[in-house]
Amino acid sequence: MKEFFQKIADRFTGFTAIDAVDILVISVLLYLLFLFLKRNNASVIFKCLWGALIVGLLAVGLGMQMTGGLFRYLFTAFLVILVIIFAMELKRDIWKINSDRGDYHLGRDTCSEEDLRTAMAEMVKAVQNLAKNDVGALIVFAQKSVPSHIIESGVVLNALISSQLIETIFIDKAPMHDGAIVINNNRILAAGCFLPLSQEINIPKELGTRHRAAIGITEAEDVTSVVVSEETGVISAAQDGKIKRYIDGPALNAILEKVYNIESGGGKRISYNRSDRI
Amino acid sequence: MTDNMSKNQSGFTRFIKWLWRLISHNFGYKLLAVLTAVLIWLAIGLL
């Protein structure tokens, strides 16, 4: 055991700049691998990979030749197995990179903080009114980019935000109510947009397709979505595939401040914890 | 002169903010990736 720690200490003693770059490159590749596994709900494989690494390291360090050798080959085999298991998902991701779908690249250069605060107030008002009247709604806040196929699946509006407009869009039997609106800064880019549904199996049955879509888009893109339940009028917000339910006015305001990256006006902060994942 | 300094400062602040956003976004996964890379680096050295 003493030898094991001595070997580790020796390894760190000879640490060079090349080693740092080496670790950085592998870290980036592993981060992309982790994101891919997370996006495809492969947390079991993720845990297995980590377990195998720890056991492998211990086996090698303690001089267990057979176990160490086995894990060495298993690690190589793991990458091949991963490609086989996720062939479809890899194909989809490569297709996404290669396709000329293009993204709507968005920014806040043309919008002042005052405009954003006005838009936020209108949005909070609209969402609260929709919740009060049990009108279902799905709103996506995209600040960086949004896939063009999502915008094109709906009706392009490019209209200034107003609570009346948002409420009108989601009113029952209106042509565009059955879809999401995509918002950038103080403009509604499009309405009636179709979003990818989350494939997460742990979503409770009482949450319908609208909630699945709200989670699904945040799994695939760097956006935040807000959803109002048609049955209960409960407001929820989703980010990075996690959803937070029972959002009130100040909490929604805090979420929007975070989305727009503007200074907090004193509203309470919302954190999307692991326990919030449904 | 003062304008230039404030411009530089705001650029620097923007850079720090950008760096912070880069690191803090999905921080758990980034940390795990670095730890895993260090583990692999150690394992290879011990082989």
What is the number of helices of chain B?
Answer: 2
Question: What general outline of chain B do the C-alpha atoms trace?
Answer: elongated
Order of helices and strands of chain A: HHHHHEHEEHEHEEHEEEH
Biggest sheet character of chain A: 7 strands, mixed
Number of strands of chain B: 0
Q: How much strand content do the residues of chain A show?
A: 15-25%
Count every helix of chain A, treating DSSP H or I runs of 4 or more residues as helices: 10
The average pLDDT of chain A is 81
Provide the fold topology.
The complex is a heterodimer of chains A (278) and B (47).
Chain A: H1 2-13, H2 17-39, H3 43-61, H4 65-85, H5 87-98, E1 103-105, H6 113-132, E2 137-141, E3 145-147, H7 148-152, E4 155-160, H8 163-170, E5 180-184, E6 187-193, H9 209-220, E7 224-228, E8 235-239, E9 242-244, H10 249-260
Parallel strand pairs in A: 2-5
Antiparallel strand pairs in A: 1-3, 2-7, 4-6, 5-6, 7-8, 8-9
Chain B: H1 2-24, H2 27-46
